[in-house]
Amino acid sequence: MEPDIQQQNPKPSPEKAPHGPDAAAGLPVVAVPPPPARGGTAKKLTLIPLIFLIYFEVAGGPYGEEPAVQAAGPLLALVGFLVFPFIWSIPEALVTAELSTALPGNGGVRAVGRAGVRGVINVASFPSLCIDYIEKLFPVFESGWPRKVAILIITLMLSFLNYTGLTIVGYTAVVLGIVSLMPFLVMSSIAIPKIHPHRWLSLGQKGVKKDWNLYFNTLFWNLNFWDNVSTMAGEVDRPQRTFPVALLVAVIFTCVAYLIPLFAVTGSVLVDQSQWETGFMADAAEIIAGKWLKIWLEIGAVLSTIGLFEAQLSSSAFQLLGMADLGILPRVFAVRSKWFDTPWLGIVVSTAISLGFSYMNFTSIISSANFLYSLGMLLEFASFLWLRRKMPALKRPYRVPLSLPWLAVLSLVPCGFLVVIMVYATKVVYLVSGLMTVGGIGWFFLMRFCKSRKILKFSKRDIGEVHEDE
């Protein structure tokens, strides 16, 4: 018997309408039609802007990879950035490609997993990362009110740019990606004659204890979030064809962008291991070529942060829009700006939440984002396998060319790594993530209560059910 997807009746019969905790089990089984055409001539994302948006969702440049060397030494840092893409990034990208083309609406894969807060917390890390690089040139921003005011101004300005439209953000990402990578290419080229290959084999200074929590979180934060762009699938031109190609190119592009400067700097610069903190690439640029390259790289860091912020904020805002389309959030979250056709309420809410987390230290922010992301990805891998088993006839323009048992094997290693990330979390991360998880569960049941009592308006065209022919 082949399953088919039917649109849910606005007034389902009592025996078919799930109630209580069991209702949550039905939500991953969704087939969301693309949203109806909107008035006007809203532009769609094409291949090149999508590649750079994915790049900024995941990386945005080699900024932030330095703590991997500080935590475990050059060899393990290089091995991590060489191996991790194969055990994590590629499996995640494959799952994202299949689910995004099967469910090509806003909200996408992450509406299935519904772990939205993780992205908003991640947005908070980028203004902090930007200031970490700026303070290398202007020490006044190291702490105190100048740092706090700078984070506030950067966040509000970049949020307004996001409000102006996803097409603008997409082409901005192309320009920012090219410009922000240029100083790293120049630095790596100048470093070639100074490279001593034996330095790549160093496991770190003697007597320095390995910091596995920092090591794994640095790798994970720099090479995850491949599924984020699925939340904007409804804004992509021909997503069934565009997504797989964009993901493939973005994976290769991202890995090369990390590895080239890491090989160059670890091979040519010999400093105390403790100096490999966030922002050290700028200091390395000065050692290799002079003050001028450090300044250029600092400018690139600021531009990269802009791209990272815009891509992640777009993802978070469109996820809220997609969840409103699915009836998980009130319909008001699907309202778009009259001028720019952007989900303005989602942008405002995401910005407000991210500001609340912006004043944590950078390591705590990324560790909390990683923990919540791990919870969400476990749901996404489970949803991916569940849909393959229960809905084999679901149209999948891109399909991972493996049978279900091999898909389970493909998912096993990434899921194991997710558990490792969660085990190595600190007390602060457990506290923040626990509160956000409990808050998310409470919000889910609050929305169900509001929907059942008709306190707020919710979409009725959204969630599909799976039926088998008798």
Task: Give the helices and strands, then pairings.
Elements: E1 3-7, H1 23-26, H2 47-58, H3 67-72, H4 74-102, H5 108-113, H6 117-134, H7 144-163, H8 166-191, H9 212-222, H10 239-268, H11 280-288, H12 291-325, H13 344-357, H14 362-390, H15 404-423, H16 427-452, E2 464-468
Antiparallel strand pairs: 1-2
Outline of the structure:
With 470 residues, this protein is mainly α.
Mean pLDDT over the full residue set: 77
**What's the story with the biggest beta sheet?**
2 strands, antiparallel
Number of strands: 2
How far apart the termini lie comes to 8 Å
Low-confidence stretches: 1-41, 106-115, 462-470
Gyration radius, in Å: 22 Å
Give me the number of helical elements: 16
Beta fraction of the residues? under 5%
**Order of helices and strands, N to C?**
EHHHHHHHHHHHHHHHHE
Strand order of the largest sheet: 1-2
Shape: globular
Global structural class: mainly alpha
Report the helical percentage: 55-70%
Structure, explained:
This protein has 470 residues and is mainly alpha-helical. 63% of the residues lie in helices and 2% in strands. The protein contains 16 helices and two strands. The chain has helices at residues 23-26, 47-58, 67-72, 74-102, 108-113, 117-134, 144-163, 166-191, 212-222, 239-268, 280-288, 291-325, 344-357, 362-390, 404-423, 427-452, and strands spanning 3-7, 464-468. It has a two-stranded antiparallel ribbon with strand order 1-2. Helix 14 (362-390) runs antiparallel to helix 15. The protein is globular. Residues 1-41, 106-115 and 462-470 have low confidence and may be disordered.
